[in-house]
Design brief:
- The structure is a homotetramer.
- By secondary structure, chain A is α/β, with parallel strands linked by helices.
- The first copy, chain A, has a single domain, classed as Glycoside hydrolase/deacetylase (TIM Barrel, Alpha-Beta Barrel).
- Helices cover 38% and strands 19% of the residues of chain A.
- The first copy, chain A, is built from eight helices and ten strands.
- A seven-stranded parallel beta barrel of chain A has the order 1-2-3-4-5-6-9, surrounded by six helices.
- In chain A, helix 5 crosses helix 6.
- The longest helix of chain A has 21 residues.
- Chain A is globular, with a radius of gyration of 17 Å.
- The interface between A and C is small, with 10 and 10 residues.
Amino acid sequence: MKIDLNCDLGESFGRYVLGDDAGIMPHISSVNIACGAHAGDPTIMRKTVRLALEHHVAIGAHPGYPDLQGFGRRKMNFDPQEVEDFILYQLGALSAFIQAEGGNLIHVKPHGALYNQASVDRAMAEAICRGVALFSQDLILVGLAGSALLEMGRKHSLPVAAEGFPDRGYQPDGNLTPRGLPGSLVTDPETIAENAARLCRDGIKIIAGQTEEVLRIDTLCLHGDHPHAAETAARVRERLEEKHIKIQSLEKA
Amino acid sequence: MKIDLNCDLGESFGRYVLGDDAGIMPHISSVNIACGAHAGDPTIMRKTVRLALEHHVAIGAHPGYPDLQGFGRRKMNFDPQEVEDFILYQLGALSAFIQAEGGNLIHVKPHGALYNQASVDRAMAEAICRGVALFSQDLILVGLAGSALLEMGRKHSLPVAAEGFPDRGYQPDGNLTPRGLPGSLVTDPETIAENAARLCRDGIKIIAGQTEEVLRIDTLCLHGDHPHAAETAARVRERLEEKHIKIQSLEKA
Amino acid sequence: MKIDLNCDLGESFGRYVLGDDAGIMPHISSVNIACGAHAGDPTIMRKTVRLALEHHVAIGAHPGYPDLQGFGRRKMNFDPQEVEDFILYQLGALSAFIQAEGGNLIHVKPHGALYNQASVDRAMAEAICRGVALFSQDLILVGLAGSALLEMGRKHSLPVAAEGFPDRGYQPDGNLTPRGLPGSLVTDPETIAENAARLCRDGIKIIAGQTEEVLRIDTLCLHGDHPHAAETAARVRERLEEKHIKIQSLEKA
Amino acid sequence: MKIDLNCDLGESFGRYVLGDDAGIMPHISSVNIACGAHAGDPTIMRKTVRLALEHHVAIGAHPGYPDLQGFGRRKMNFDPQEVEDFILYQLGALSAFIQAEGGNLIHVKPHGALYNQASVDRAMAEAICRGVALFSQDLILVGLAGSALLEMGRKHSLPVAAEGFPDRGYQPDGNLTPRGLPGSLVTDPETIAENAARLCRDGIKIIAGQTEEVLRIDTLCLHGDHPHAAETAARVRERLEEKHIKIQSLEKA
């Protein structure tokens, strides 16, 4: 049994520091790096790429809406062509740093509102897939387990990876409980580690029509901006290793 | 005898239209496309790349300071590392569209204040060269004839091309007369065409210490945002062809 | 009989020119000036305020979403508190220029997606009203005739003015036909002038449940970014004057 | 003997938190609030104004260059008219929140690169003064002791206040040692408190030509983004009170 541990990092901007990148990088197998739209700037991107390569962490792009003030979490009414173009832009920008530092771009995971929309909105999901596929058919598309994004990714012949969230609550249909609602966030490291192990073993059970279905998980998302993010990451890694679950980055099926 | 005709296009932004891209593209051999910092946005970039490919125009990147309101013409006090990182970012972003549309990135020409600083400031020129070289040693670096940028480009083993401006006034040291000063801008298409032919034939004579020197010109810059930009471009092309000067895009020496 | 003629101006940004402000200003009685979020910048704002005062045109604020690339036309998922705060910010910023130039701020009209949301979404409409009322209880709130915005404005004891669009199509419920759909835009100056006169005389007939209702119009919006915007404005003014409809700016009831 | 203690706060942006506003506010007599250009956003501005009023701290505007990524610390080549317009814009925006919350705008202090330029560049200093005076002749202009800004402020009949920095090194001409150079920053709270008491008592001795001169200090700047900022602020206040120096906000002469 194996699992990928991913985290969104490189979310600082200019003087503004967000997240404990150096503390978390040693514990994860994949990193999603912000691309200068909802967070990150060229200097931050370069440093984060470098840090990832030092720790042999697989690098992915984390494109989002161009809304720094809202951190890419406010849904914006982009049309699909705009989404496709912004995806290409951000993939290209991050890719330049990865290439300059001698690494490879392995995966893509949309951020925030874009991720959430792409989970349920097929037109948006397709726009993202078109942008990714135009950049490279080899990029692994990371999306919510059971989401429209993964469905569209398969349709566009992209390798896909199903993501699970050990620190978020789930609704019966497999979608995340929206932030702000009760049970949306788990903060206790012990509980998060427990959830992580369970997600690896059991996946996510959802109600699809009359029947129950199980969504398998390929990668677990750890959040880098919690107060005890590095400690939580270490705890999750420890727990998974105790259970003989191997932590390794995504690879094409 | 031959010369490249280049123009800065793709400078629109969202609803804001700048320049007659469609009118000028047929007349030039190289285009410098804004990369979303001082001008341009992902959707504009993609359209401009497409338009260039339709007209078999060689594509270059036109990176600038991230100052849309000042159109990248206000000098900003970036340190060299920031410049290097912003260059990489913008090269990567544009490159994604070129690759998606099936073209190649041929050259790089800094924009506005960055161009002017790199003409005289070696640290800034080196930062640009490092960014370009990290992206690709094959990119042709376009800079002011006689500038620090070209000198540093040669030092970094980049192919370089010397640019001349048929619609701008020159100072005795070979630098452009700053915008706003008398004689800084020529607007009459006939005079611009005449200047173009002369720059091809004679280069730019400058006073370097006690002696006169001649700077050869590889590429002429036409401006795309003049009222009669397309007409001027057509006139310049016509005049050069009358003089049996072949118009063709830059190639590595 | 009398009517106000308003137009959204001051929508240029840096080097980017949008609309024929100088051509239109002489024909209107009220101007809505962009406040640096979806369009406009401090220098543009100041010039537009000056131009309005020269032509004795009543000045209003035209706040929008902070999305220059989307020109404030893309719905953004702001929460009501954010909307209230952005309204205050933009009112204050514009107000500084009006005060510096010796004028008065008379009215407020939300822009683009904010206008459209406030037409139907009461929480958003209330947030705008709170922002406006905190700034001044004397500002006249301009909104779509029959909209939630006007309803909420009345609830917050703000003077309100109902707006009609002679160059836009209406749906049976009184909302504008969304841009992009057939019939959403009228471009012929003659038809626009005819619509203007009709809107003054007859208002807008809407179907409200089983009964027909008539919405009275206090102000007509002319668009400043059409190719023949100045000509259209002149034609509308002429037609209204032929029909003995007096053109004058809004005043408190 | 009395002194004002000021601090730059409200420098967070969206999700990005900078500085310990709540920890520092109780210890100061004046606050300089960022206005959404180099830092701050409408929601942050409103909260900071509220916090200041709760603690009876005098509110000032802290306008800066529109360069969030560079935090307003990168010199930008604005022309004086642009500076004047940006000052007005930011004063107006902040003022709206102060008015909404029932407070008064007392002073203005330019931020970062703008502050530094205005210390030595008279044209820039005048532009700032024009912007401030257009907004209100009653605003107290805060600038570096001995600076061109204060000189120009007096010329424009603005009340002025001379600022000293207990945590920064000074050069013999009275300018601050630029950040990054040795001795530019003092971080030990004890030394800062000592410097504060000395600045109150002795002012700053500078070499002006052949003679020594003493610059009196009206207000001391405490930095809010140091690791131990709140502790330092408390220590400074304590030390000053021990020395019977009264801490009170600026007032017009």
